[in-house]
């Protein structure tokens, strides 16, 4: 099983991204990429995209992802090339049903065409590497379904070319919530200075302060109860995730919110500080980072070439892409 995952540089990485994604990207045969092509479907600032892409790639390396697995999506032209072939395999009807497009684009003339077609790019991301299992958070289910439908249709119309991926539902179910608004997910695209969003590269004292100010409730009891006590439950989930503990059991050790918050802050910083140190070390050697990303790029180009070529030939493109 090949593991594959892309993260869109739509903002600076959060604690949620680390605990829910980066930390689990451990497959030495995996493909982990900064999905910068996906960050252009809505209005974007090119200079910010450059810096977010570099920061994210460096953080992925700093998080200890296996060497050679990390690359930048746009460095591997096969993604955009296959995406076009898949646009020629998909229907307007199925793309119109995509939730993102329905919510952010439909009926608005100034919507970028790429917001409509990007599920084909995502299908390309998946299908290029012969990935059979795609672990996703629930918000991505629909996209993986589309990748499946497109792969099945392509194989039927042009001959067996792609592995049809399976959906691994709820594989990434754990969700860290916003500290200031614990019924909402913590997201990297939240505004830059959102008080409830912990950024992996924020100064440790800022992170500690954010945790100490996390919204709780007024009944004073430390208990795991997502409905009645979302704030306290989120803190317990974070603590459990950082210490490999059980959130329900951990609750019994605390009688005050203050003590819980102090331990959460210590546990989060114990995870984040080594990451920041490694990030600083890597960032001070840009040539070294370039070399690691080039290795990831070359491996991804090699691995994706056969499927891209096969798809192009099957569709009637002579020569090679
Ligand atoms: P955006 O606001 O751009 O959607 P995001 O923070 O939700 O940003 P994604 O790019 O959607 O990040 O997802 C990247 C990875 O991080 C995915 O594997 C996703 O499951 C994981 N992830 C995102 N947010 C959280 C969270 N709050 N808790 C746990 N995992 C998360
Ligand atoms: Mg998201």
Automatic annotation (TrEMBL):
Record keyword Nucleotide-binding present: yes
Keywords, alphabetical: Aminoacyl-tRNA synthetase, ATP-binding, Ligase, Nucleotide-binding, Protein biosynthesis
Q: What is its EC number?
A: 6.1.1.2
Q: Which InterPro entries match?
A: aa-tRNA-synth_Ic, Rossmann-like_a/b/a_fold, Trp-tRNA-ligase, Trp-tRNA_synthetase
Tree of life domain = Bacteria
Question: What SUPFAM superfamilies does this protein map onto?
Answer: Nucleotidylyl transferase (SSF52374)
Q: Name one Pfam family in it.
A: tRNA-synt_1b
From the Swiss-Prot or TrEMBL record, what is one GO molecular function term? ligase activity
Homology family: Belongs to the class-I aminoacyl-tRNA synthetase family.
Protein name from the UniProt record: Tryptophan--tRNA ligase
High-level lineage = Bacteria, Bacillati, Actinomycetota, Actinomycetes, Propionibacteriales
């Amino acid at each position: 099983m090949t593991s594959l995952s892309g993260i869109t540089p739509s903002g600076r990485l959060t604690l949620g991204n680390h605990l829910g994604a980066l930390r689990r990207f451990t497959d030495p045969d995996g493909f982990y990429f900064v999905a910068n092509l996906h960050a252009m479907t809505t209005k974007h600032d090119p200079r910010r995209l450059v810096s977010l892409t570099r920061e994210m790639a460096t953080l992925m390396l700093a998080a200890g992802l296996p060497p050679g697995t990390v690359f930048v999506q746009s460095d591997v032209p096969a993604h955009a090339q296959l995406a076009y072939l898949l646009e020629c395999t998909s229907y307007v009807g199925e793309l119109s049903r995509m939730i993102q497009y329905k919510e952010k684009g439909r009926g608005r003339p100034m919507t970028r065409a790429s917001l409509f077609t990007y599920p084909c790019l995502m299908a390309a991301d998946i299908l290029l590497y012969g990935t059979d299992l795609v672990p996703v958070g629930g918000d991505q289910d629909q996209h993986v379904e589309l990748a499946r439908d497109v792969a099945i249709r392509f194989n039927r119309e042009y001959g067996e070319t792609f592995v049809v991926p399976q959906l691994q539902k709820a594989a990434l179910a754990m969700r860290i919530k916003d500290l200031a608004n614990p019924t909402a997910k913590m997201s990297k695209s939240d505004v830059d200075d959102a008080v409830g969003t912990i950024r992996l590269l924020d100064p440790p004292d800022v992170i500690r302060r954010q945790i100490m100010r996390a919204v709780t409730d007024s009944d004073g009891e430390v208990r795991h109860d997502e409905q009645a006590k979302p704030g306290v439950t989120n803190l317990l989930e974070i603590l459990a995730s950082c210490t490999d503990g059980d959130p329900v059991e951990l609750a019994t050790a605390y009688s005050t919110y203050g003590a819980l918050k102090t331990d959460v802050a210590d546990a989060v910083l114990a995870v984040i500080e080594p990451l920041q140190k490694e990030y600083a070390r890597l960032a001070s050697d840009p040539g070294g980072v370039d070399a690691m990303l080039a290795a990831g790029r070359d491996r991804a180009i090699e691995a994706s070439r056969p499927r891209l070529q096969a798809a192009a030939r099957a569709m009637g493109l002579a020569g090679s892409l």
